[in-house]
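Here is an idea for our session: we take a single protein and study its fold together. To get us started, please write out a protein record for me. Start from the sequence, derive the backbone structure tokens from it, and show both lines together. Go ahead whenever you are ready, and we will take it from there:
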Amino acid sequence: MNGRRVAAVARRVASQFRRDHRTIGLLLGAPILVLALVGALWGSGAEQVTRVVVATSPPVPAPVVDALRRVETLQVSTDTPEGAMQQLRDGKADAVVAMRVGVARTEIVVTLEGSDPLRTGTVLGAIQKGILNATGGTPAGGPSSPLQVEYLYGGPDRTLLDHLAPLFIAFFAFFFTFLLSAVSFLRERTTGTLERLLATPLRRAELVIGYLLGFGLFALIQAAVIIGFTIWGLRVQYQGSLATVFVIEAMVVVVAVSIGLFVSAFARTELQAIQFIPLVVLPQAFLSGFLVPVDQLSDVLRPFAVIMPLTYAMEALRAVMIKGFSIADPLIVRDLLVLAGFGLLTSAGAIASIRREVA
């Protein structure tokens, strides 16, 4: 091995990096941004409070209500049975505590929201603690327990994977589609294909829409594979329609392709395009509810979740797959419209970037 030749290659690589200010900026700036997000996400998270609504009819024994109020992590309020369940469905409560009067015995019934297995376990543990204090240590959940547990969504047989599947479906579809479109469109720019196309009567908007359809077709196939393997390969339990899931995925794909086309304007090499992943994809993972639920983000980070497309995609997919919402539900309609807005906005950015690049 010749040390001079090795050193010459090393100097050539170093010289290329030294002249590529954009790569150096991404190399130094991207880790700082990602680590700053990590510090803000887990260094100063919002305090998690469990919201419990006690049904007023038939009345829950006062000692039980007082014991629940004494549990520091519980925020206890009262409402009618119908109002309490409505709060649970609207996401304003984590659990409802009510009395059930039967022929054989009277029992306390705890209805859990149930869409998040980890949170459900925390909520149930806190409620059991309060009821144990009120009932003199009767083993909650045992054969002779005064406490019966029911679920609005899901159930005790739901696994963590069942809860995370909607998040993974949205994130991986976005990630792989963004990477495909950004690198592929950059290659079209660097090889001169884009300039040759624009020398024809083809308009820039027509060009972008054509690329959206072309990349989107293969991205939709990939999305269908992700959904199919998740449902049948991993045997994930779900509630809603797979057609609705696919429609939401299709909107995610459109947004990811248009963002990829837009971002490619700011890269000169495939390495630079890949280095945009920490700037585009990782903030989506940190702030959209993929790693930490949006309602548990700190007050500083929560506003940024509003401008993340994956926030709406994950919310819609969880509502469909875990809660059984239909495509006509106002929540799903709203999320689809927001995703469509993101797609239009980023497509306009992609059109503008082509004008800036080659005109």
Notes: The beta strands are 50-55, 74-79, 95-101, 106-112, 147-151. The first strand starts at residue 50 and ends at 55. The chain has two domains: 50-151, 159-358. Residues 139-145 have pLDDT under 50 and may be disordered.
